[in-house]
Structure formats: C-alpha cells, structure tokens
Design a protein that fits this description.
heterodimer, A: alpha/beta, 34% helix, B: Translation Initiation Factor IF3, Hypothetical Protein Ychn, Chain: A, 6-stranded mixed beta sheet, two-stranded parallel sheet, 6 helices, 10 strands, elongated
C-alpha cells in the first residue's frame, strides 16, 4: 500500500478544470511509484464568505470526475474556510513490492523519456497576468488534466521500468537530478528533444516566470551544463527549471524498450512524449544539455 | 522619467506593470521592486528591448580616474577606453553612476569620447565630472557631457556604493 498527499492553489480560471487538475496531480504520485490508485480523501480550503458556493461544487465535481476516470473512490474529505482556494487529495494506492518503481535505479545506457511538455508554471503565470493566449491555456489545461496512468498502460506489456519520477514543483532539472542522486551517473539530454508548450518560451522571455523557477535554477544549475549551441537549444534555459503542475513522468528504460514505450504513450494520447536523453557514467552526477 | 513603486506586488504584477507603462508611451522608467523574482522577470523582459540600470539599494559606481584604460601604453589605453564606453552603452545592464576624475574628465570634453557618455546620461546613468579637475586642466568651457560635481558628492558615491575602479 502506498499513500500520498498533494495540494495546490488555483492555476486555471475554470473551476471544473482546476478540480480535474488537482485530482490528476495528486493521483500522479501513485502512478509514479508504479502502483494503482484506489481511494482518496479531499482536502479543501475555500473562502465561503467571498465566493459563491457553486464554484466549490464545480471544483469538487472536477476532482470527482477525474478520480472516477482513474478508478479512484473518494471516501470523503475535510473543508476549512480560508482567504485563498486550496484543493488537494490524500490518495491511497496498491502495488506489489517487487514491482515498485523508484526514483533511482537507472543504469548507464538506459534512456530517459518525458511524457508531457514543460512550461505549465510559465503559462499559468502569464495567465494570472492576463497575457496567455486562450489556445495555449487550453493545451496546457488538457495536458495537466491528463492522468499519468502509465502503470495501467503497461499492464499487458513486459516493459521493465528502471526508474520513474514525475516532473512537478522542482522543474525538469531538479527531478532529473533526483534520478541520478548517488548513482555515479549523469544524464545527457538533447535540447531539441525536450517537449515544450507552444508559446511558453515567448512568455518566459517576456518575464512571466514564477519565483519557483528561479529558486530551482539557483539550486540545480551548478549540476547542469549547457553545451547546446543556440541552433540546438531554441528556448530560454529557465524553462528547464519551471515548476510544473501535473507534469509528465520521467521514465528510464533500457534502450531496446524505448521505441515500444514511446509508441504505447503516443497511442494513449501523450502526443508530445519524447526520448529526451540517456544515462551516462559521470562521477559528478551532472546533466549535460546538448 | 516615470517612477513606479512595485513593492509588495506578487508575481507577475511587477513585470506586467512595467510592460503596461511602456505601452502607454513612457520611454524611460524608474522602477522600485523588493524581490528577486520581480527583478529577474523585469530584466528578462527588458533584455529583449531595453537598457536597464540595476540599483540594489547601492547602485554600481564606475570610477574612471584616467582618460586611459589600464596602465602602460597610453595610445592603447585611449583606444581601450573609447571601446569600453561604446561597449558599456550596448550592454543591457548599466551602472548607476560614472565618476570622472583627474584626466578622466577629458572623456567628457573630448570630441571623440563625449558622445557615448552623453548617450549613457540620456539612458539615466548619473555621470559626475570632478569640477576641480576641470578647472585644473582648463576644460570648464569644454564640458560636453555629465554634470559638474564636487569632492563631497563624489566621496559619497565612492564610500556608500558598490565601486569598480578602472
């Protein structure tokens, strides 16, 4: 049995969509461990005195529907009054001890797949400023609502997942670094292969970067070497540190499984999934971007 | 120059206000912010199209005590100084103050050098020229850029600011 808790503040204007993102985001932690989610409890903070209660109903309906899609039963929850909306879930899932996916465990030569584009933090910052085009908001919302249900997709396949984590608040670089912590491995990442939301780069260059991205950059940049030429890296490096909400999975598999896994992901609607790099030997445990 | 106080505003308000102020036709802005995220985002935004002076409570002061950059060959030093001022003009982040002293004051008078200084001044850089030095070299009527200053004011910048001496 595995358990997890996750809670976020609104990142979308549509309450029903926001509820779905909360559920997808919270449930993702269970999938990341290679387990199947079954039960959840809501945790909510809502300003009952200043916002109509219908908004709360819509948020909860979004959470309920997304949980149902994942086969999760919401057993109840707890609500408090607060000035800012917060919504999260405590999720319980099950798996077998021998098949748990862990953050570490990749070996030299394994490849790294990212299942969703990055840039949700930057786009939602621009959204707060009223500067994000609707089309982009919709594509980011669709991605955040999408369940990271890789364990379900792999039920009938014999692909061994060597290591797995999800890209969330610490951004792509910090989460990728966590996969090589104490492994004497490095990651060689191909800038061109990193999927990025349309317009996210433009919005980053316009200054719509959340504070978390700078904190992530400060922490992780000593371990990140950018050797890509401007021709190969067509985006602002801050995107590598952008905090993600309901971001994709970072999955390590053996090279000979990579194409099949990519195919499975694409068929399941992860259209941006991409092999973004590979694990190499490196005493200093760094990420090299080429 | 329009002064906007953006302290206390959460991200992304500061960068948005800067963008709006420029769209409203202000060519020059002075912005007060109180956190690193706002600073980084405004610099990101500005690096695409603007010149920026960062004054972190203690603005950067460049102290130019000679018309030549570096010691050794004066001909080379003069070329280097000209190139330095022109390059400084092209960098996105500018110092808050330039202090010209001793033969440095020639830079604000010389036909070939004053233009970049004048441009820096127009971008909001405070160019201080030592009055005593101007008098000594008999250049008072030749001054083409910067404002005449005194030891008292110059000392304040040298003592209280982050100074780089060239």
């Amino acid at each position: 049995m595995v358990q997890t808790v996750d809670m976020i503040t609104p990142i979308l204007d549509d309450p029903y969509d926001f509820g779905q993102v909360v559920a997808a985001n919270a449930i993702s932690d269970i999938y990341t461990m290679g387990c199947l989610p079954e039960l959840a409890l809501n945790i909510i903070a809502f300003p009952c005195s200043s916002l109509p209660i219908e908004i709360l109903s819509l948020i909860l309906a979004g959470g309920q529907d997304k949980a149902a899609e994942a086969g999760v039963l919401i057993g109840g929850g707890h609500t408090i009054e607060d000035v800012e909306i917060k919504y999260g879930m405590v999720v319980t899932g099950f798996g077998t001890k021998d098949n748990l996916w862990r953050v570490g465990g990749a070996k030299e030569g394994d490849v790294l797949i990212l299942t969703k584009p990055i840039g949700t933090g930057i786009v939602s910052t621009a959204l707060k400023a009223g500067e994000a085009p609707l089309e982009i908001i919709n594509s980011v919302a669709d991605s955040m609502k999408k369940l990271n249900n890789l364990p379900v997709l792999l039920k009938n396949h014999r692909i061994k997942i060597k290591a797995c984590t999800d890209v969330t608040g610490f951004g792509l670089m910090v989460h990728a670094l966590s996969m090589i912590n104490k492994s004497k491995l490095g990651i060689k990442m191909i800038a061109r292969e990193i999927p990025i939301f349309k317009k996210a780069n433009e919005l980053a260059l316009s200054g719509f970067v959340p504070g978390g991205a700078y904190r992530n950059e400060k922490w992780a940049s000593p371990k990140v070497i950018i050797n890509a030429t401007p021709d190969n890296m067509l985006f602002d490096p801050i995107l590598l540190y952008d905090p993600q909400t309901s971001g994709g999975l970072l999955v390590a598999v053996e090279q000979n499984n990579a194409e099949l896994l990519l195919l499975i992901l694409k068929e399941a609607g992860f259209s941006a999934a991409s092999i973004i790099g590979s694990f190499v030997s490196d005493e200093d445990e760094r990420i090299e971007i080429i | 120059m329009l002064l906007i106080d953006l302290r206390g505003l959460p991200c992304p308000q500061p960068v948005l206000r800067v963008k709006k102020a420029l769209e409203e036709g202000n060519n020059s802005l002075e912005v007060i912010i109180d956190n690193e995220t706002a600073l980084n985002n405004i610099l990101r935004f500005a690096s695409m199209k603007l010149k920026t002076i960062v004054n972190e409570g203690q603005g950067k002061t460049l102290f130019l005590s000679s018309r030549y950059l570096g010691k050794g060959d004066d001909e080379l030093g003069e070329l280097l100084m000209k190139s330095f001022l022109n390059t400084l003009l092209q960098t996105p982040i500018l110092p808050e103050t330039l202090v010209l002293m001793n033969t440095g004051v020639y830079l604000a008078c010389d036909e070939n050098c004053y233009q970049p200084l004048k441009n820096l001044e127009e971008l909001g850089v405070n160019v201080l020229v030592c009055g005593t030095c101007l008098k000594y070299f008999d250049l008072e009527s030749e001054l083409k850029a910067g404002k005449v200053s005194n030891m008292f004011e110059i000392l304040e910048y040298l003592l209280l600011r982050n100074v780089t001496t060239l």
